[in-house]
Amino acid sequence: MSPFGLIETFGLLLFAHMLADYPLQGEFLAKAKNRFAPVPGVPWYQAMAAHSVIHGGMVGLVTGSLWLGLAETVIHAMIDDLKCGNRISYNQDQTLHLLCKLFWLGLMAAGVGGWGAL
Description:
Layout: H1 6-21, H2 26-32, H3 44-63, H4 66-84, H5 90-110
């Protein structure tokens, strides 16, 4: 479990998201993760996995929960794939990522499933 309160944890989750989605993603991952317009010679799924694991790692570090980190990894990849396929807009993508962070906080607040444990 995060050593911080819920408000502080939310702030850290937002900060970690911005860090992971912008400077830690960079132009290469932003382009290479798109299976609909792949970068030649780069398996899109490896780039998507790398980007999503960065996000999941951030959530895991902030919350202290491996399970929330794993959930973030999977859901982040799904959301980004929808955006890459033009099924959702950039703003919808960012809104869904924000809603995920709120959902993780709700699970932590409810103490559901022992999220702080491995």
